[in-house]
Design goal:
This protein has helices at residues 12-22, 26-40, 43-60, 63-77, 89-105, 114-117. By secondary structure, it is an all-alpha fold. Helix 2 (26-40) runs antiparallel to helix 3 (43-60). The chain is elongated, with a radius of gyration of 16 Å.
Length: 157
């Protein structure tokens, strides 16, 4: 895909993921991205799903689940920084590290304490951070797979 055919929108399921995640609906955000992840088998998308899943565990007060999901998300997302597919990955990784620090400094926290201890960040997303050659775009945008010069569509503002 050339620079001239750079997408002007994000995959609809990624847009929905971000909307739900930023609304604090972490389980629903994870579900919104799962079909695309399964279709394209992307470590990046799996990392975002794992990241959202960590916050489901925060709400449940499951310290082990928080740590496990954050570690797996970090492993999946680390190769994609600083930005990838419109997502500010470095911000996500920085928050993962902050949350892991909270886990280390609060080993005796009760399950009901976790939602107040862990920060719920907003994901930063911008279509200008899409290079256009990301494998996740193949088939994820209407008209992209067979029409490299598809008409422009809106994205997240």
């Amino acid at each position: 895909m050339s620079v001239a055919s750079k997408p002007t929108t994000l995959p609809p399921s990624l847009v929905r993921f971000v909307e739900l995640f930023n609304a604090g609906q972490h389980w629903e955000s994870h579900e919104a991205l799962e079909d695309l992840w399964r279709e394209v088998s992307s470590d990046f998308l799996q990392g975002l799903i794992l990241y959202a899943s960590a916050f489901v565990h925060v709400r449940r007060g499951n310290r082990h689940g928080i740590g496990a999901q954050l570690s797996k998300a970090e492993e999946k997302l680390a190769p994609y920084g600083p930005r990838y597919l419109g997502v500010h990955v470095e911000d996500v990784l920085a928050n993962i590290r902050r949350c892991q620090g909270v886990l280390l400094t609060h080993p005796l926290a009760r399950p009901e304490d976790w939602p107040g201890l862990v920060s719920y960040p907003l994901l930063k997303v911008d279509v200008r951070w899409v290079k256009g050659d990301e494998p996740e775009l193949a088939g994820a945008l209407p008209g992209r797979a067979d029409e490299p010069d598809a008409p422009e569509r809106g994205g997240l503002d």
